[in-house]
Automatic annotation (TrEMBL):
Keywords annotated in UniProt: Hydrolase
GO molecular function, one term: hydrolase activity
Lineage of source species: Bacteria, Bacillati, Actinomycetota, Actinomycetes, Propionibacteriales
AB hydrolase-1 domain segment(s): 19-250
Domain of life per record: Bacteria
Keyword Hydrolase applies: yes
Protein name: Alpha/beta hydrolase
Keyword Hydrolase in record: yes
Length: 260
């Protein structure tokens, strides 16, 4: 059975700075395999982990975003990581690590949703419906996700691994994790303004279509922040680390350069 906070590493074991990689919802550490293999990150130590409740990893702890943020910050310290990159759910954890002061290094936020308006409407609908009628809408989502993955622009081997990981998810655990995530991004605060004012070196990466996005106000705030770099990849990309590994690796390499 997969374990929560399992790690997959690449690169020289003593290389500095190292990077902690936090995957998106339903995904495991190996979803970053293609990014880790990119030449732009050769010589960099990369540490990918699987969050509790994802890809079959059991839940034995608090899975609110602040709690995951604390545990991820501990893992970053233990592994000597001075850069954190997260995708989707993992990006929200990475952002909280920075805004809470538990992590002071550069962060890369892939497919980040700052507010419910940024998140895909169908995902919000599935989660909130499952809270009311039981977990079957979430279970149905996991039946549909393999179809989405099979149409992704990535290798057949990587597709098979992603499908295996999605099928390993437990609907009840995924609902618990997703509910706390949606509650967190719905809180009455202004995360774009907080990030802009934080002084944290941050890269916020989205595709033109497919992976959520930012509101115009959020984009304007972040574009004006001297420490935030907005990156927009052309075309439609739903799974950024899997469909755009080269571009993802190049952004992470830029963050590593800032931490060196």
């Amino acid at each position: 059975m997969r374990e929560a906070w399992e790690i997959v590493t690449s690169g020289p074991p003593d290389a500095t700075p190292a990077v902690l990689l936090l995957p998106g919802g339903a995904m495991a550490a190996r979803s970053f395999d293609l990014v880790m293999a990119e030449p732009a990150l050769s010589g960099v130590r990369l540490v990918a982990t699987t969050l509790p409740g994802m890809a079959g990893a059991p839940i034995a702890e608090d899975v609110t975003i602040p709690a995951l943020s604390r545990r991820a910050a501990e893992l970053a310290r233990d592994q000597g990581c001075s850069v954190v990159a997260g995708f989707s759910h993992g990006a929200t954890v990475a952002l909280d690590m920075a805004l809470s002061g538990q992590f002071q290094g550069p962060i890369v936020l892939l497919g980040l949703s700052l507010t419910p308006e940024d998140e895909a409407w169908f995902f919000r609908g599935v989660v909130r419906a499952s809270e009311k009628v039981g977990r079957w809408p979430m279970a149905l989502l996991f039946r549909v996700m393999p179809l989405m993955i099979r149409s992704a622009k990535t290798s057949e081997v990587h597709k098979r691994e992603l499908v295996e990981d999605v099928k390993a998810n437990r609907a009840g655990d995924a609902l618990r994790v997703s509910s706390t995530y949606l509650d967190y991004i719905a809180e009455d605060r202004d995360p774009a303004a907080l990030l802009a004012a934080s002084g944290t070196k941050a890269w916020v990466v989205h595709a033109e279509k497919g992976d959520g996005g930012l509101t115009e106000r959020e984009r304007t705030l972040l574009a004006a922040a001297p420490d935030v770099t907005l990156v927009v990849l052309p075309g439609a990309v739903f799974f950024l680390p899997d469909e755009a590994p080269r571009e993802t690796a190049e952004v992470i390499a830029a963050a590593v350069a800032q931490a060196s």
